[in-house]
Write a structure and sequence with these properties.
This protein is of the alpha/beta class and about 350 residues long. The protein contains 14 helices and eight strands. It has a domain of about 120 residues: Nitrogenase molybdenum iron protein domain (Rossmann fold), CATH 3.40.50.1980.
Length: about 350
């Protein structure tokens, strides 16, 4: 009896040991092993390059997990005036494809063309480009404002001729100083991507090219594009309705980068500096801006996220207005990259800020 009881207990212990034991989980990979695994996964994917952040953002959404998308320029630094190093061009040569904005934005393009055989896809080929200074005509209101100021100046008497000449010298010096800080983008305004209507055209160019080089996943790329197109069309419709109800049609910016966005919605930007200038507005320009801003009853002066707010604050203080940022998307913040913020989210935030300044 005791022998049977002993055998029964032993059998239960064996069964409990076998049945209750859990298979040992695989030990977590070390950081180096994880990096190696990620590298091995990414090496299985084709690599495509983009010129800078907005094109990277669009391409990443369309390519999804089928391709590795890289940016030729640093995603977190200003793209104006950037020139690639020999090492960066050599790395670019390992890929077969790069998507660019075009419209003169990529000043380094000639050096890439002369040094690599990479296929360059201009995403703005089908975009209607605007020349610098192109504006909507709102019943010639802005022309009348300018004419009034010209008329006033014609009737001003100069008390001190020497002082008058000195002022002209200062203005000339300011203009010369501004030109020193300008970059040459050619005959067109290069900021096409700030228009959601243009972004649809540019995204479609990306999707069609990816479908061409990877036909097996064509349906996947076009489906991702269609989802983006639908979202952007919804944003466009929402803000066309909003802006159609506002009496104001003007907004003030420190840098003339938002003309395409303004054009989409029948608005007009008033800028303190030109399309390519990275310098602060000069004294004479600020004086002119103060007069126009008062005449148009401007209550918000915008400056670019990550850029200087000096000129914007000077103007805002003079007209009792507030300052606010707009994102020109020429580079990304750490927060945007970590959150995976989409082009659609950024453009909607810009539009809402401009709309709020008009109500």
């Amino acid at each position: 009896m005791k022998k049977k009881l002993f055998l029964l207990v032993a059998l239960c212990m064996i069964l409990t040991s076998c049945g209750g034991a859990k298979p040992q989980d695989k030990e977590p990979s070390s950081p180096s092993e994880t990096a190696k695994e990620n590298t091995e996964v990414s090496m299985d994917k084709p690599v495509v390059y983009t010129s800078f952040y907005p094109i990277y953002n669009l391409a990443s959404q369309i390519a999804g997990d089928k391709m590795e998308v890289k940016s030729f320029t640093n995603l977190k630094t200003e793209s104006h005036g950037w020139e690639p190093s020999a090492k960066e061009i050599a790395e670019l040569s390992n890929s077969k494809l790069i998507f660019i904005n075009g419209a003169g934005m990529e000043e380094w393009l000639d050096s890439v063309k002369s040094s690599t055989d990479i296929e360059i896809v201009d995403t703005t080929e089908e975009v209607t480009k605007l020349e610098p200074g192109h504006t909507h005509d709102h019943d010639h209101e802005h022309e009348e404002v300018a004419d009034e100021h010209d008329h006033e100046h014609e009737h001003e008497e100069v008390a001190d001729e020497h002082e008058h000449e000195h002022e002209h010298e200062e203005v000339a010096d300011e203009h010369e100083h501004e030109h020193e800080h300008e970059h040459n983008h050619g005959m067109y305004d290069p900021h096409t991507w700030l228009s959601p209507k243009n972004a649809i055209i540019q995204a479609k160019a990306i999707a069609e090219k990816l479908s061409e080089v990877d036909p097996e996943n064509s349906e996947y790329y076009m489906s991702n594009f269609k989802a983006m197109e639908d979202e952007l069309n919804g944003i466009i419709k929402e803000y066309e309705e909003k802006f159609s109800k506002t009496e104001k049609k003007y907004f003030f910016v420190n840098h003339a980068a938002f003309n395409y966005m303004a054009h989409d919605f029948g608005l007009e930007q008033k800028a303190l500096t030109g399309i390519t200038s990275t310098d602060e507005a000069g004294t004479q320009k600020l004086k002119e801006a103060i007069d126009i801003a008062k005449e148009l009853n401007i209550n918000t002066v915008f400056y670019e996220q990550g850029g200087s707010d000096k000129s914007a604050k000077t103007l805002a203080n003079e007209i009792n207005a507030k300052t606010e940022t707009l994102d020109n998307m020429e580079f990304a913040t750490d927060e945007d990259l970590e959150a995976g913020k989409t082009y659609q989210e950024i453009i909607k935030e810009n539009l809402e800020k401009v709309y709020q300044s008009m109500i």
